[in-house]
Amino acid sequence: MLPAMVETSRPATQRPGHLLVIGGAEDKLRQRQILSRFVTLAGGREAKIAIISTASALGNEATELYRSLFRAMGVREVRGLRPVTRDEAEDPRLAAALDDVTAIFMTGGNQLRLAGVIGGTLLSQAIAERHRHGVVIAGTSAGASAMSAHMVAFGTSGASPKQRMTQLSAGLGLLQGAIIDQHFEQRNRIGRLLALVAQSPSLVGIGLDEDTAALIGPSGVLEVIGRGSVTILDPAHLHTDAYEVKRHRPIMVSGVILHSLPAGYRFDLRRRRLLAPLRALEEHHADRPSGGLPARGLVRRIAAEGASSDAPERARRRAARRRSEEASE
Fold it and tell me: What is the sign of the dihedral through the CA atoms of 28, 29, 33 and 38?
């Protein structure tokens, strides 16, 4: 079995690797602060990165986008894995492709597709085994949501928590005791995260804005990176009527401790307490594009994955209104 093979190849005393949980739409064209941190943790020029793009409906395009990004950042070895069926994810050869990697990156898209295809397979076991032996795992958007043991499968937006607002399913189990939501501020997901922690008060809620990441170390300390904020909902002193509210009615939620943390701040997930902040990373040459830039159109399409199905129609209607208003002026 793969875990036995892996176990003999690395010291048993090695600490687990970091988790880099990204809220989606991370900067790919200019400073690339989050992706640069990932590459540094992976080993810099000596990194060996595996990209898993199963979540993405754009197929090989997502793999090639991140392959070009990481190579432009100096990484010499980048490989793509994209099983689309559970039979493919059970292939020992695919799992063995992770034997020597220093980092794994899971793209955005649909987290239910990602967990549904690889959850509980040899590939999933290999990812968890590599993480236990020091490999850094990053996920953006859907790839971020799937990292937790309990995962947001799908749901609706809104500021007020309501019954049946969202649904949970099993994730990949890399992060225990928390539930992750992404595109948090941009898609107004505070209500559904409040509903989730009200219904599952043993879990800490983590909401990630776009171009923002939570870097979680082996000790359970979370550090915020990027342009936005990480919202943490701690339901330790929760009062709620979620267990008796019917249908889609509003839920009463009281006593939840809310932390909104910008870059440089840290939070201990195990002790559930705020820590002294680090100095936020300085932004050097923020407007200077890096070499090897991917196509902007492809970046936008991949960043938009996971949006509600009516988002394109809403965008078309807005564009039509703008054209109508301009024509009437």
Answer: positive
Band of residue 39 on the pLDDT scale cut at 50, 70, 90: very high
Q: What angle separates helix 60-72 from helix 33-42, to the nearest 10 degrees?
A: 80
Tell how many helices (H) and how many strands (E) occur in the chain.
11, 17
Query: Rounded to the nearest 5 degrees, what angle is found at the Cα of 79, between the Cα atoms of 74 and 83?
Result: 150
Residues 89-142: pLDDT tens digits? 999 999 999 999 999 999 999 999 999 999 999 999 999 999 999 999 999 999
Would you call 204 exposed, middle or buried from its count of C-beta atoms within 10 A (0-12, 13-18, 19+)? buried
Known catalytic residues are: 141, 183, 210
Q: Provide the token pair at 96.
A: 């063995």
Start-end of H helices in 106-156: 111-118, 122-132, 142-145
| Host H or E run for residue 223 | strand 221-226
Q: What is the pTM of this model?
A: 0.86
Structure-block tokens of residue 213: 């990441």
| The pLDDT value given to residue 14 | 81
Closest CA to 209 of 61, 55, 21: 21
